[in-house]
Amino acid sequence: MTSSQPHLHQKSPEIQQFGTVTQLPIALSHDARMYACQRLNRVLADTQFLYALYKKHHWVMRGPTFYQLHLLLDKHAEEQQTLVDVIAERVQTLGGVAVGDPRHAAEITEVPRPPDGVENVPTMVSRLLEAHEIILADAHDAAARVVALGDDGTQDLLVSQVIRTGESQVWFLAEHLVVTPLAQG
Ligand SMILES: [Fe+2]
């Protein structure tokens, strides 16, 4: 008998476990794809937390530079969110499993947890800069190592997207920590 009743509450065991890669015909060895997925998942987890840090600081920003920082941090958050998707889809392209659940990402990230409350503006800007540098150092190292294993695509993503975006955002943020008068008396 036919029925249009959906079969709800379906359950299955995992069909691919985290930390494994399927074989795709992309001319990269199993070891190269495993290694790249491991490195990318760390960058992915860190980038998810950098995105969240940008959003938190976008919301709780204070003081006379509130408006410009409120807007700038949201722009950077959007760019980091785009990176999250690009990195995750690279993991899938390599046959891996991208870190998705934020509780899983929290187990992997090296970005320090901020206090739940509000810090002053220079401290919040510094916190973002420090998170950026953690990711940049890791991305530089990962880029050099994956290219040695023949994974040009992952190296290109890390260099042209993760590193270039991060460096530019660091520039825009760091200029807010320069003490300069608005006018000379
Ligand atoms: Fe907003």
Automatic annotation (TrEMBL):
Signal peptide limits: none
InterPro entries in alphabetical order: DPS_DNA-bd, DPS_DNA-bd_CS, Ferritin-like, Ferritin-like_SF, Ferritin_DPS_dom
Organism: Streptacidiphilus fuscans
Family recorded in the similarity comment: Belongs to the Dps family.
Protein name, as recorded: DNA starvation/stationary phase protection protein
PROSITE patterns: DPS_1, DPS_2
Domain of life of the native organism: Bacteria
Pfam family, one: Ferritin
Ranges where the Ferritin/DPS domain occurs: 38-180
